[in-house]
Design a protein that fits this description.
By secondary structure, the chain is α+β, with helices and mostly antiparallel strands. The chain folds into 2 domains: 218 residues, no CATH class; 306 residues, Beta-lactamase (3-Layer(aba) Sandwich). The protein has 17 helices and 29 strands. It has a 6-stranded antiparallel beta sheet with strand order 21-20-29-28-27-26, with helices on both faces. A 3-stranded antiparallel beta sheet has the order 1-16-15, with helices on both faces. It has a 3-stranded antiparallel beta sheet with strand order 2-3-4, covered by helices on one side.
Length: 598
């Protein structure tokens, strides 16, 4: 016998639910906008009052045919508007055309629909949830984000229910998430969970009454994804904090997170908002700036050229570019011929970074500050430099000349060296770097929502907004980085996991051999655009790379010997270390929850 509770629903509905819960349970409860209702039990028993006659007739036909009814829903417009979905068919009357067509697409694709739901707002607003897919139109943005998250992981949410006041609850796998729900209803859901009962069905009357049905006990072990989110960090007092708590603590407005398990993307989730104080939420395909995680992808592109015999990594870079390799006045001219493509990929090509270049007349005793680029505000009146102006350090470039400053073979983290590779790649291919990388790196990797484009294409225009350390949007929302090879990649955590899988799997991802096994192994062993830790024969051997642009912070980390890894992207600057501390906590939580060996 399951558990149930209801409040202020029609007496006859309460009576029928009570009788069903003493036996087979209840699989569907639905209320019409006009006060009608219908209840269906798993054994085919059903009862209804005040629903459209053709809906009642269709329901009877479905059950007489031996079909299992999974969902009944009534749009807020009322009248003869309804939909019934069963295991072997469906029928609808006066629902939005695109909703009806999508139900058909799901059935034709073999998806098992568990829920069709309509928000209280009229119009083209609806949700379909199935065992392997979800689609929604014009629903609350936070609800959509949460639906995307809860249809990830080893146990997927099966239901979403909208309350008449605009609140909603997502549930059915083992956990739930709700906003603006009637307090007494939410308290009952919590109580059922505390009693180890799995919430299977919730329905609201138009006047605010509600019914909660539990047919089954909670699963014995929780979904690790829900553990990761809800038991994210334990403080010194033993109190557990959620991922949302820690985002708030560190002032992270939005985040994209994805996890690789058995060399497949196990799940991809998103949290928070595009812009602080805004009502648009981050989606799993929302574009963030990857910053210096651009470099591993540029490295892959350079190695593809080497595999195609267009270049050799042992070449002096000057051999493959028309750009005259520049040397600082205090540097030896012979160093130019020692600066090979491979050494540049390893940050040992003699080109040092923006922050540790000064004084510009010196070849030693540099100031510290890293090797990145400042970017350019995307605001009126700001002129972007050309690639050659960046190389020469001439106006309007905001960075010094790119020139060999130390003898090649010494490590200096160098975004400048990667700009030299950008010029080389364009010279060798005769193609714009951004276009070539899209076709030859991002697409083969399966990074379908990623781009090196300076200006975001329309498909990715709904992008995360960068924030400073005061958690305020930066001027122009996102800086522009014409130094694309070093800092210009836009992507999301799920797409970045494709690169992790490729490096974990000897160059193979989605049945595409992006790099040869030999070259993929060399990328790790020689640290070509990526960094490694540990010995390659150790279980905890890993590779990683982080990225910091103005307003954005990200990291990728993979474990080749365990077939796992993770990517985290945030729309917050790391000038005070908070964004980096947050992604470190994400990594540590994933290591703990999934028992990754370190």
């Amino acid at each position: 016998m399951g558990a149930f509770f209801d409040s202020n629903i029609p007496n006859d509905a309460h009576t029928f639910i009570t009788s069903c819960m003493a036996g087979p349970g209840v699989s569907v409860v639905a209320f019409t906008p006009g006060g009608g209702w219908v209840v269906v039990a798993p054994n085919g028993s059903y009862y209804a009052e005040g629903i459209p006659q053709d809906c009642f007739t269709t329901l009877g036909n479905f059950i007489q045919n031996g079909w299992t009814v999974r969902s009944i829903a009534f749009p807020p417009a009322g009248g003869d508007s309804w939909v019934i979905v069963a295991d072997q068919g469906y029928f609808a009357s006066n629902i939005p055309n695109d909703c009806f067509q999508m139900i058909g697409n799901f059935f034709n694709g073999g998806s098992k629909i568990s829920c069709v739901a309509f928000p209280p707002s009229s119009g083209d607003s609806w949700v379909i949830v199935a065992n392997n897919a979800m689609f929604a139109s014009n629903i609350d943005d936070e609800c959509f984000q949460t639906l995307c998250n809860y249809t990830q992981g080893s146990r997927r949410a099966t239901q979403v229910t909208f309350a008449p006041n605009g609140g909603w609850i997502i549930y059915g796998d083992e956990a739930y998430f709700a906003q603006n729900l009637d307090a007494s209803c939410f308290a009952q859901v919590q109580q059922f969970e505390n009693e180890n009962s799995l919430v299977g069905h919730i329905a609201f009357t138009p006047s605010g009454g509600w019914s909660v049905i539990c047919n089954d006990p909670l699963p014995p072990s929780p979904d690790p994804l829900r553990v990761f989110e809800d038991f994210f960090l334990q403080d010194a007092n033993g109190q557990w904090h959620t991922i949302y708590d820690r985002m708030s603590f560190y002032g992270v407005p939005g985040a994209s997170v994805a996890f690789v398990q058995n060399n497949t993307v196990s799940w991809r989730t998103s949290y928070g908002v595009l812009q602080t104080g805004g009502s648009e939420y981050v989606y799993t395909n929302t574009a963030f700036q990857a910053a210096s995680i651009s470099k591993p992808h540029t490295s892959i592109g350079v190695q593809v050229l080497a595999q195609n015999n267009s270049i050799a990594l042992s070449d002096a870079v000057g051999k493959d570019t028309s750009w005259p390799v520049a040397t600082r006045s205090c540097a030896q001219a012979a160093w130019a011929n020692q600066s090979t493509i491979q050494l540049i990929l390893q940050h040992m090509g003699g080109f040092i970074g923006r922050g540790n270049t000064y004084p510009l007349t010196s070849c030693s005793g540099f100031t510290s500050g890293g090797g990145g680029f400042a970017g350019y505000p995307n605001t009126p009146g700001v002129t972007l430099p050309t690639l050659d102006q960046i190389l020469s350090g001439s106006a309007p470039a905001n960075s010094p000349p790119i020139e060999i400053t130390v003898q090649p073979g010494t490590f200096f983290y160098s975004g400048m060296g990667y700009v030299v590779l950008m010029r080389m790649l364009q010279d060798v291919t005769g193609t714009d770097f951004r276009d070539w990388m899209q076709q030859n790196v991002l697409t083969p990797l399966g990074m379908t929502n990623s781009t090196f484009a300076l200006n975001l294409p329309s498909a990715l225009a709904r992008a995360a907004v960068g924030h400073d350390t005061n958690v305020q949007p930066i001027p122009g929302l996102r800086n522009l980085y014409p130094e694309a090879s070093a800092a210009g990649l836009y992507t999301n955590a799920g797409d970045l996991c494709q690169t992790i899988i490729m490096l974990n799997s000897a160059g193979l991802v989605n049945d595409t051999q992006v790099l040869s096994a030999q070259q993929a192994e060399a990328m790790l062993s020689n640290q070509l655009g990526i960094f490694t830790s540990g010995q390659s024969n150790q279980l905890g051997y890993l590779f990683n790379h982080n990225g910091e642009n103005f307003g954005f912070t990200a990291v990728i980390q993979g474990y080749p010997n365990q077939g796992t890894g993770m990517a985290i992207m945030t729309n917050r600057d790391n000038g005070d270390g908070n964004a980096g501390s947050f992604y470190t906590e994400v990594i540590n939580a994933l290591i703990r929850v999934y028992a990754i060996q370190t």
